[in-house]
Input
Amino acid sequence: MADSKKNSSWLMPSFDFEPAKKSPVAKKRNSLESLERTTSDVTTTYEITPKKKCTSSLSTLLEACEPKKSAELVVSRQKRQEIADWFQYKVQKGKPSVLVLSGSSGCGKTAAIRVLAKENGFNVTEWITPIDQAMDENNRIMRQGDRFEEFLIRATRYSSVLSTYHSRLLLVKDFPNVYIENKDSFASLLEKYYEMGREPIVFVCTEIGSSSLLQKLFPPNIREKFAIDLININPVTQAAMKNALKRIGDILNSIAGHILCVSQDKIDEILSNSIGDIRNAVINLIFISLKVPEERQENKCTNREESLGLLHGVGRVINPKKVQNGDSWKFVYDPDDIASYFQSQATVFLNFLQENYLNTMRGIEEVNACANILSVADTLNSEWRDVNLTKVTLSFCTRGVMVTNEKPISGWNPVRKPPSIRTEMQRCLAAAEVRWYESIINSKPKPMEELLDVDMESIIE
Output
């Protein structure tokens, strides 16, 4: 009986009148009450505040700067209305339709299509030319044109169950190279699309330089045959650029204020150099707004007030200008500053000096000294194992020629280009080779007697 009571001590028999020392229910309730008390103390003591999101990725910054509604677009109101009319009146559900957007780079073509398509209830599916190779069902490598054709027909014929939009739009701005080289295959692809496609397509043609993608793939006869609509987007105006950069500046300061500081002065600087390219303007605004530490702002090699050309640099060395500074004098242009401009083309600069230093020399002693200086500079420049030796060579040569030429000859002396020794050697070798072949072809066979009677002196010569 004692053993049974010992094993079942957690039970309370009805005939036992002794008060229970501990109640498991009360213990559990007390633990819950203490837990609630501690949590209430924590919540009252500490306040949880949302952490501000900061980003440093360029792609994330550019994505945040994209327009979200039609009023934020840099495209003119007239062009926006033309695109909206195409969505409302030209696009019919279940039937193919094509729109071509043309314009210069960065004029807002793609952003306008994305925003206006979303406002009209279209989900945009963009084609991006893949880099990796794909295999078909027979384990054969698919060509780029075949993959594009398969994607075009599949994307415009079958809808996605994951999309919340009632319609879909296919966007193509990265054309496969096979269609650029073969225009007939692209025309046949359009015929297949008009036979099997059921969703609209927008082709974006960017005009770069003299290459006109619009004239290659969408000539007037193709547009007339398939009833393709064309909308030409003009470059961004100065007023639209100003409004867009002001909006983008506020966004950048709010999400990337730890690395960027966009001010109105920097926006005005971008506007003064803008050429109607909003993408280029935004990237330049991000880079000039970077917060640079003070110790990195002064850089002798990169921050210069002017860009010195090769001919002007040679002229400053062979015709040095001096100014009086009390009892002494100094150069108007610092020799070390001149040398720092040509560290990447030291050999070319030395060759120009050797070709033109005699134009301003007066005496034979100065010529001799400069010749020795240039010879030593050539020897030092041939040592390529030490990178810092190039700076020493240019400084030594520039300073030596400028100091030696105390009284340069005044007058107009055009800078001559040094002759290319390698070109002269190749020309001489080519001429010698031609003469050698001509001597073999035009030579007549000599009789055996003459070959035996050859003089020994002619052989030595």
